[in-house]
Amino acid sequence: MGFKVDSSFLRFLTMGARGVHRVSDELRSMGFEPIELERYCGSNKIWATKVKRLRLPDLLCAKTGLRLEVRAKSDLKIRMSDAPNNPDRIWDAGLTDEDVVALIACGDGPDGPVPADRAVYFTVGSLRESVGQSKLGAPKSASEGAERDRTWPATVPSRPGRVLSVTEQKLVIMMERDEKAPRKQTYTLNGKHTYVAPGDTFEAEVTFLAGAPESMADLRPHLDRAYSPLDEISSEDAVDRYSAVKAIRFRPDLHARAVSVLEGLLDTEGELRVALEAAGSASALESARGQDYVSAVIWGDGPADLSMEAILILTELGTQFARDELLRVAGANEFKGDERRQAALWGLGKAGLGAYAELIPFIGDEEENVAYHAIAGFGPDTPSDVIQTLVELLLTGDPQNAPAASETLHVIGSPEVLRHLTNAAESNAGVRDWVLATIGRLSPDMVRSHLQGTPLLDQLAPMLLVSEGANWLSSESAMTDMAFLLKQNI
Q1: Please, where in the chain does CATH 3.40.1350 lie?
Q2: What is the rounded CA–CA span in Å between residue 452 and residue 444?
Q3: Rounded Cα distance, 330 and 338, in Å
C-alpha cells in the first residue's frame, strides 16, 4: 500500500538490524568475537540526532580485527549504496581492501523481515578490482543525499537445485520445480566468475552461483590472526584508532594496561569521535578521567550530535556512573525539548541498563516524546515491585498518570502484570475501571487461561473480542493500515 511510507522505512531498518544479528551469530559460530563498530547498526531505533563524522564498518571482531559491512537484501544482489560526487559517501569510504562485505538475503515473515541462515562474503578488495563491471542505478530520494545503488553482475537462482557442470563460458544446473520434474538451466557467464563446482547444491535466492568479483571471501584465515588494539591506537588512520579503542573494553586481557593508554589518548587525539570512544572505554574500566571526559561532552558547548553519542555510550556501560548520568540528563531543564532526554530514558530501559524503576517518574511527562520513550523503555522482564508501583498509579485514576501506567503495563504484558492487575481488581471494587481496561488490553489467550471460571472473566469477555490480536482487524499491521487509510479523507 503506497501510503505506508513510515512503515516501509522502519521495515528497511529492521531488515538491516536483523541482518547484523544473523551475521554476528554466524561469525560467533565460526570462532569470531563480533561487536558493533558502528553504534546502533544492530537496532531499528530511529534517532534524528546522530553523529555524522567518521564512516565506519558495521562489525569488528575484537579477537582478530576483522571488520565487516553488512547489507541485508530483500532481493540478493552484490549491491552497495554510492554517492560518486561525495567522497565521504562513496561505496567504499572508510573501508580497506581486507575489510569484508557480508550480503544476506532477507525474506518476509509474520513478525517482519527474516534473514537467511547464512550470509555471503566478499572482500572490499575483490569488489574494487571488479568495480569496472558494476553499474550505477538511478538517484534515490533527495533525503538520501542523491545516493545511488551500485550493482555488480551476479547470478542468483530463483529455485533450489544442483550444479551439473561449469566451464569458462557456461554454468549448467538442474533446478527443482514445484510438483514438476527438475529442469536443466544454462547460464552464460559473460565474464562472471563461478563460486560453485559440479555436484554442489544451492538454495533459492540466498546463494550466489557466479559474479563479477573473482571469488567470495574465505574468513577462516582471519582466525589465525592476533589483533592488538593497543598497537593500533598509534595508527595514522582514524578508523583503525576508533576500532582499537572500542575493542579494548571487550578484551579483558588488555584491561590492566589499557587505562593509562586510553587516558593518554584524551590529550592527543584530534578526531573527536575517536577521543570520545576512548573515554567511553576508559569509563567502562572505571577511569575517573574517562568519566569526566564523557560528562564534559554531554554537558559542554560542543556539537549536539557528539553529546548524543556520549549518551548512547552510557547506555552500553551498565555502571553506576552511567545510571547516574543518564538520570541527570533525563531530568535536566537544559535538555527540555531535546532528543537527548529521550535517549537517556531509552538507555535506562530495556535497550540499556534495565533500570525500570527510574522510568516511572517520566511516563506521564509533560513532553509527550519523553513520556513515549519512558513507556516504550519497559520490557517483559520488569520486576514485580515495579509492576506493583505502576498498578498503584493506575488506581489513582489521575488523568495523566493512569493512562500512562495502563499503557506501560500493556507494553510489559507479562503474566506478572496480569497477576497484579487481577489482585487489584479483586481488592479494589470501587476504583477498578482502569484495572479492567488494562486487563482487557493484554493477550486474550493469557487472560482467558488465567481467569478461567471466574466472574471477572465474564466482565472482561466483550473487551477481549477487540483486544490486540483477537481478530483480523486488531492485528498491528491491520490497525496501522487502517490508521493511514482513514487519514486520507479529504
Answers
A1: 5-150+212-220
A2: 12
A3: 10
Model-wide pTM > 0.85: yes
Average confidence score pLDDT of the chain: 92
Closest CA to 447 of 424, 470, 431: 470
Question: Residue 5's pLDDT band (boundaries 50, 70, 90)?
Answer: very low
| pLDDT score of 31 more than 90 | yes
Measure the CA–CA gap between 71 and 59, rounded to whole angstroms: 11
106, 19 in Cβ contact below 8 A? yes
Q: For residue 113, how many other CB atoms are within 10 A of its CB?
A: 20
5-150+212-220 fold: Trna Endonuclease; Chain: A, domain 1 (3.40.1350)
- The confidence score (pLDDT) of residue 1 equals 37
Helix axes 288-299, 320-330, angle to 10 degrees: 10
For the domain covering 154-205, report its CATH number: 2.40.50
Which of 57, 78, 74 shows the shortest CA–CA distance to 66?
57
Kindly tell me if the per-residue pLDDT of 130 is higher than 50: yes
The one-letter code for the residue type at 215 is S
